[in-house]
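agent> fetching stored inputs for the tetrahydrodeoxyuridine docking request
agent> found them:
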Amino acid sequence: MSLLQAATDVRERAYAPYSRFKVGAALRATSGAVYVGCNVENVAYPEGTCAEAGAIAAMIAGGDSKIAEVFVIADSPSPVPPCGGCRQKLAEFAGADVKVTLCTTDGLQKTMTVAELLPGSFTAAHMDRA
Ligand code: THU
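agent> prediction call returned; pasting tokens
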């Protein structure tokens, strides 16, 4: 199954009663395994989690830790951009050149790299003083 189809399918299972904005994410790890996630909201709004975070959690639980490619989809007027926190989460497990394809349910797509999504990102190297 394609990453687009996997993201489209998991989006249907999103729990988004507060925003009514369902998001699906699918990523392929460098092992070839595909992991999916959807947003899971909470009545205590800050406790909600994004689709990308769910897919990353599934990947780590599945024993992978390197992302090869990502698709994110929502019923949005333009290809849905990951939030700032999700950009940082993706950068933890994806190289700068990894492609993230932002999609709408109407068929629009925009592909960006992790570096384009998060220029000047904070990395472990910034904590090195020695
Ligand atoms: N959301 C995601 O799941 N991923 C994104 O990249 C953007 C936003 C979710 C969070 C919340 O449940 C809803 O979309 C509205 O912000």
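agent> quick read of the result: Helices lie at 3-11, 51-61, 84-93, 114-117.
agent> awaiting further instructions
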